[in-house]
UniProtKB/TrEMBL annotation, chain A:
UniProt-listed Pfam families: ABC2_membrane_3
Domain ABC transmembrane type-2 span(s) in chain numbering: 112-341
GO MF, one example: ABC-type transporter activity
Keywords: Cell membrane, Membrane, Transmembrane, Transmembrane helix, Transport
Top-rank lineage group of the source organism: Bacteria
InterPro entries: ABC-2_transporter_component, ABC2_TM, ABC2_TM_bact-type
Organism: Gracilibacillus dipsosauri
Topology of this chain in the membrane: Multi-pass membrane protein
Record carries keyword Transmembrane: yes
Primary localisation category: membrane
Protein name: ABC transporter permease
Transmembrane segments: 24-42, 154-173, 194-221, 227-251, 263-280, 316-338
GO cellular component terms attached to this protein's record: plasma membrane
UniProtKB/TrEMBL annotation, chain B:
Domain ABC transporter: 4-231
ATP-binding is among the record's keywords: yes
Gene3D superfamilies reported in the protein's UniProt record: P-loop containing nucleotide triphosphate hydrolases
Source organism superkingdom: Bacteria
Transmembrane region(s): none
Pfam families in the cross-refs: ABC_tran
Annotated protein name in UniProt: ABC transporter ATP-binding protein
Keywords, alphabetical: ATP-binding, Nucleotide-binding
GO MF annotation list: ATP binding; ATP hydrolysis activity
Keyword ATP-binding: yes
InterPro entries to which the protein is assigned, alphabetical: AAA+_ATPase, ABC_transporter-like_ATP-bd, ABC_transporter-like_CS, P-loop_NTPase
PROSITE patterns in the cross-refs: ABC_TRANSPORTER_1, ABC_TRANSPORTER_2
Amino acid sequence: MYSNGSRAIVKRIVSQFKRDKRSLALMLLAPMLLLFLVWLVFNGSDYKPLIGYDNLPNPIIESISDNSEELLKLDREEAISLMKSEELDAYISMENEQPAILLEGSDSNKNSTVMQVVEEALQSMDNNQKGTEPKVEFLYGSSDLGLFDRVGPVLIGFFVFFFVFILGGISFLRERTQGTLVKLLSTPIKRWQLVVGYVVGFGTFTILQSILIVLFSVYILDMHMVGYVWELLIVTILLAITALTLAILLSTFANNEFQIMQFIPIVIIPQVFFSGIFNLDTLDKWIQILSNFMPLTYGADALSDMMIKGYHLQDVWFNIVVLCGFALVFFLLNIVVLKKHRTL
Amino acid sequence: MSIIQIDNVSHQFGKEKVLKDVDLKIEKGKIYGLLGPSGAGKTTLINMIVGMLRPTKGTIIVDNTKVPSFKVLHKIGFMAQSDALYQELTAWENMEFIGSIYQVKKKILQKKMKEAARAVNLENHLKKPISQFSGGMKRRLSLAISLLHEPRILLLDEPTVGIDPLLRKSIWDEFRKLQQNGVTIVVTTHVMDEADKCDQLALLRDGRIVASGTPLELKKQYQVETIEDVFLKDGGVL
């Protein structure tokens, strides 16, 4: 039955929604945005590998060439250096009448695409040479490297980012709504001291969080890991600080906890799609450009390189510099935005 | 000698003019009451003396320094209209937190915290988290917190809301004690018997000061018996 009481509540909810246009817009538009993102990611064309070769019979070259983005004649050293800069997926050559494949290896999807292409090419060879199984080597990882090993590092970065963002955002929001921010700013505290306090205070717990996540992934879940744990921690902590400073900044634009949650589909989820879980190579250029503005891209990329390829901090210095840059910019913006509450 | 001097101050939020050409001199060591209906601009004026807001026009000088200024923030004890307390922390932890932001030395702070808690009758509740405090207790704790760094000027926005008459009296006794020590106190209030206790009053309406003086002077000016009647007459009711 539709009682008067219920009717009153319905009316109230409608009025509240009308006042909170942002929530309404989110409810109506966010699902479409997210569907669009999923559509983008899954609608990319098939990936065509970049392959190098040396000393291969012509029919094989032709077959591979049809199924690859690029096919270059290289020697082994050139091939390895291209792989290191992520410009080559595989290198195929003949060793003692046996085809030898060197896979870059860090992406299991690319590995299997390459293997398909090569196997198809080998089919086209003379019958007498059939049966010679190709020898497969990996520059990084091994044939054991599964999907989880590849997305694992991205997920570590994501979860660190996500939880710090939510907790930091709500915590700072409460500071505002419960009036303690005004009280704090009526003391002689400098605005930057306030933000530093937040970063260091939360930082302590994010260190703990990072240690647990990393150790759990590596030792309990047995995620592929050839780097150093402490180096991973540096990156996750940096990522956490970036998330925290961004959360504090965005909490200024939220009036309640619910509105903090609204940032999840807008700020967090797109980063997941575009930060390395899915291969962006086959997607439009603008998405790749967009992903350059996402902190998680750099964190996740550095974590992957360290865990799968055994890179060190100095090898991922660029990602670290960019992350520091993000954190610094958010930090400074926070100090400026706090002027809204105290002009001094 | 006036410790707070407000010269021709106006303030607007967007298009809304909250204060219009306010002039005010507050003498050192006085208890100064800001009276007026809700929305008259009392809180805005207090916030501007603290230095949270910058006047759109005019200047405010506190203790010979133009605000906003960090130097002035050190000398001011501020209590906002809403209780700014951390719900998860105990009363003691809340006090300790703000006290240490003022960089009060640890030993002195401990002593000050006990004194302040006693002054507002909370010394037996310091270990409780704020979530277990009643409205009046929170108000009193907020007041205690604003005293920790021995401010020379107290700016209190409706300090006695939700506090029963008995406790209100003891809080006013505390104000008197502070006053004897040379502290200047500015309070906004709706409680008329409180207004009567102030040394000086200013009546605000629609962002303007419409009358000021001692309670006696105001009553004379409006030709009424009580401050409540001043208020009512000014509002056009009487």
